[in-house]
UniProtKB/TrEMBL annotation:
Residues 177-293 form the SCP domain. It holds the Pfam family CAP. It comes from the Bacteria. This is Uncharacterized protein YkwD. InterPro entries: CAP_dom, CAP_sf. Residues 123-157 have a biased composition (Low complexity). Transmembrane segments: none annotated. It comes from Nonomuraea fuscirosea. Keywords: Signal. CDD domains: CAP_bacterial (cd05379). Gene3D superfamilies: CAP (3.40.33.10). SUPFAM superfamilies: PR-1-like. Residues 1-23 form the signal peptide.
Length: 296
């Protein structure tokens, strides 16, 4: 069986605008509109653990969040691991036994989401996302894995330095150029390569390359929006992120994103006017790609 060339994932967070209402109504409407529960499908870490995580996002009111890892078996499926927290984010891990697993996450308001079922062979990386993820939006859960620590490769990630006086490496700037070429076909204005978004994108690609994971959520629990703001980006009315791994060139990764409806939706969203691109190789030459978008 041929292995896919690379893997992709997309996430998006958009600001909401509401009509004037009473303070109580506004608070309730905002909570209902923004509060989301998400859960990652189980995967196998380098330490041979089955792991998953879940999170509550955009929620003002603290609530109990519970995750269950379920194993599909003849008859009723069996819960093999369960945990709960009020901190808004939780990761579960257990020793790997080959089989088919899925995860569910529920908060006390009754919001429940279920991950896709995946067959795990107890080899590192099994269950990692494949090249056909769904785009996320304010109405759908954003994947938020917080994986257990994995060994750092013996060789450090490398990437070309930013061009003198510019933003990003030659590869990263080529991704920006190709992205803008696709946007032009749909009538969208060109994106400007923003240094703070580039710092957030490059930092995430470097982190994934160094720690051998693939997720919109950093292993320290930060979301893509946390990383964007942590890079000093302020203001804005919308943000999104595309990630990929394994594509060997800017042309191949942009084409892969354009072939996926969720990633294409982020690229072709005319609301965005800024972009940051990060491209970093791991010790084996595999490139991790990140695109961060923003409207400001």
């Amino acid at each position: 069986m041929r292995r896919p060339l690379g893997v992709l994932a997309a996430a998006v967070s958009l600001a909401a605008i509401a009509a004037p209402v009473s303070a109580a109504e506004a608070a309730a409407a905002t909570e209902a509109a923004r509060c989301r529960v998400s859960v990652l499908k189980p995967s196998v870490s380098d330490t041979m653990k089955i792991q998953t995580s879940a999170a509550r996002r955009g929620c003002f009111t603290p609530a109990l969040l519970r995750i269950r890892i379920n194993r599909a078996v003849p008859g009723p499926d069996r819960v093999v691991k369960s945990g709960a927290t009020r901190k808004g984010r939780l990761t579960l891990a257990l020793p790997c036994v080959p089989g088919t697993y899925y995860a569910t996450a529920t908060d006390y308001r009754g919001r429940t989401v279920k991950s896709r079922a995946v067959r795990l062979a107890c080899t590192p990386g099994s269950g990692v996302p494949t090249p056909s993820p769904s785009a996320t939006s304010p109405g759908t859960p954003v994947p938020t894995p917080t994986r257990t620590a994995t060994p750092t490769p013996t060789r450090t990630p490398t990437t070309p330095p930013p061009a003198s006086g510019g933003v990003g490496s030659a590869e990263e700037n080529e991704v920006v150029r190709l992205t803008n070429a696709e946007r032009a076909k749909g009538g969208c204005s060109a994106l400007k390569h923003d240094p703070q978004l580039r710092a957030a994108a490059h930092g995430h690609s470097a982190d994934m390359a160094a720690k051998n994971y693939f997720s919109h959520t950093s292993q320290d629990g930060r979301s893509f929006l946390d990383r964007i703001k942590g890079a000093g980006f302020t203001g804005g009315s919308g943000w999104a992120e595309n990630i990929a791994a394994g594509q060997p060139s800017p042309a191949s990764v942009v084409q892969a994103w354009m072939n996926s409806s969720g990633h294409k939706a982020n690229i072709m969203n005319c609301k965005y006017n800024l972009i940051g691109v990060g491209a970093v190789k791991d010790g084996k030459g595999k490139i991790y790609w990140t695109q961060d978008f923003a409207a400001r």
